[in-house]
Write a structure and sequence with these properties.
With about 150 residues, this protein is an alpha/beta fold. It has one domain: Rossmann fold (3-Layer(aba) Sandwich), CATH 3.40.50.1970. It contains six helices and five strands. A five-stranded parallel beta sheet has the order 2-1-3-4-5, sandwiched between helices.
Length: about 150
Amino acid sequence: MPRVAVLTGSQSDVPLLEPCLQTLSELGIEHELHVMSAHRAPARVQEFASTAAERGFEVIIAAAGMAAHLPGVVAAWTALPVIGVPVGKPGMSGLDALLSIAQMPPGVPVACMAVNGAKNAALFAAAILALKHEGVREALAAYRREQAQG
């Protein structure tokens, strides 16, 4: 079964990831949530990212606000697809996080969703997994049919 790692740098960001986690569950995609900061626990992030593929993960979703280093640091330590979700909170638009994720240097790609675009991150992960996994392809097609019906 395909596995997605969902990372965030702060426990306070977990509620913003609920649409992502719910969508992955609805699509039948196995996932794990991990809280780890690129600034406060860089060695832990390195260890996780560099061994993620060996542990069966196929896509990593990384949410971060402000300086938003988590997605880029993860991408530096893995060849897996990394999807960045910029986090905006009350009083902060998330533009800083959006620019941090969208402007990765050449050679370290990170797909960038909209600010607080956690649900789209799950759907993008599903689209990546659907290339290889028929069950995900079918679940995503059914999701899109339902969405089209309103």
